[in-house]
């Protein structure tokens, strides 16, 4: 029953949020600021994860496929496809659920317990739209860009690790990656990225917006935002893979 | 003028407000007093639309606030200013940005006009030269004054203050009281204050409502307080006054 209650309230929150903004220029300014926070703020962690992810995947694939019957470029093709289809969007977004999601939920939760959301409502401002819409838009724009960067850096990590360990040369890696490249794989990856971006930002905004109590509950909302986003990401990962591949 | 007609509010089975009716006149300071848990804050939240009454009507100058559509409610709210207990300033914005916020959202003023208005409002609350400070960098009393400045940035008709003196020293409390009095008289607005502070009641109150267990037990002018024969009201006054 509680699941239906939260789902219903989440849908109402979204419908309320998408009502007409009071002043478009203010919303645009806030969206740009959130884009900077989400995009630039998350870039270092995304870059580190992507490089190591590509490097480790290359070494593990090479360990499993080491055979005179398997050509070296196959390793490059498997790593680049895995990065694009699963590792870059899903792992990166799980990390972003922790990083961006908890930040959004705690920021909005603090606004709630500090009566700042009540202050917005009393001024006649649609608080759900004013607070959440710029964050969701910023997430939907910036997270797919981060995923594209993550795919690129993941391959760079794979090339570096393959070359440093003497498993395959950069040319062999690139040859494998180019041979197996399909535009649909990139589109699939971006569909995942848009879906996960919406889940991370909207769920975190929802959890923060309905915080009740004090500092302890702000922490609790933040945790709920991360856990719920992570579960929904994994569930939608399965659903999208089943539907689209 | 604000009229409350037979306001009831329940949370599940618990009835918090029971049939409260009152009238708050413009240009007057109306005080809602009562012990903790008596229902003052719930009444104020119903009045500003943060809670919906279970029954009854709240009328702002012939507009039934409880029967309006959400868009119309938002239009009425633009005539309302509210001072929260903690100030409710936006942490990530400076004092200037906080006061400027309603102007940016609801007026077509240029940046220069907005700055002029912000400085005027800050001058009204005796705060000058703090435009670039963040809420975390100013004292509790200053936060309340910025809250008042933000509340009056637009031409409001109604001002609500939720325990404006809580957590303040006696000197700052009197400054805040004085500012509320000046603003109410100067702009002719209808002011409603929730308070426990009997000094505030006697210093600036024009019209008092005493709430006990969710019901209105006494209503009258400040000068009538001492002649009241209501036992609970007298007990509350004596306990508060000598506390």
Please, could you describe this protein's structure?
The complex is a heterodimer of chains A (245) and B (243). With 245 residues, chain A is mostly helical. Chain A is built from 8 helices and no strands. Chain A has one domain. In chain A, 87% of the residues lie in helices and 0% in strands. In chain A, α2 (24-65) runs parallel beside α5. The longest helix of chain A is centred in the N-terminal third of the chain and has 42 residues, at 24-65. With 243 residues, chain B is α/β, with parallel strands linked by helices. Chain B folds into 2 domains: 2-79 and 157-242, 3-Layer(aba) Sandwich (Rossmann fold), CATH 3.40.50; 90-155, no CATH class. Chain B has helices at residues 40-48, 70-77, 95-106, 111-124, 140-151, 170-187, 198-204, 231-242, and strands at 2-11, 14-24, 29-33, 55-60, 63-64, 80-83, 158-162, 190-195, 207-212, 215-221. Chain B has a 6-stranded mixed beta sheet, sandwiched between helices. Chain B has a 4-stranded antiparallel beta sheet with strand order 2-1-4-5, with helices on one face. In chain B, α4 crosses α5 (140-151). Chain B is globular. In chain B, 42% of the residues are buried. Chain A binds chain B through residues 22-23, 26, 110-111, 114-116, 118-119, 121-126, and chain B through 48-50, 73-78, 80-82, 84-86, 88-91, 101-102, 104-106, 160.
Give a short synopsis of this structure.
The complex is a heterodimer of chains A (about 240) and B (about 240). Chain A is an all-alpha fold and about 240 residues long.
Q: Number of folding domains of chain A?
A: 1
The major pleated sheet of chain B works out as: 6 strands, mixed
What is the first-to-last residue Cα distance of chain B? 34 Å
Query: Can you say what the CATH homologous superfamily of the largest domain in chain B is?
Result: P-loop containing nucleotide triphosphate hydrolases
| Structure classification of chain B | alpha/beta
Strand-residue fraction of chain A?
A: under 5%
Coarse morphology of chain B: globular
Strand adjacency order, main sheet of chain B? 6-7-8-3-9-10
**CA-atom Rg of chain A in angstroms:** 21 Å
Order of helices and strands of chain B: EEEHEEHEHHHEHEHEEH
Secondary-structure-based class of chain A equals mainly alpha
- H/E series of chain A, N to C? HHHHHHHH
CATH class of the largest domain in chain B, please? Answer: Alpha Beta
**Span of the ends, CA to CA of chain A:** 33 Å
Mean pLDDT of chain B: 89
Q: Tell me the β content of chain B.
A: 25-35%
- Discrete helix count of chain B: 8
| Overall tally of structural domains of chain B | 2
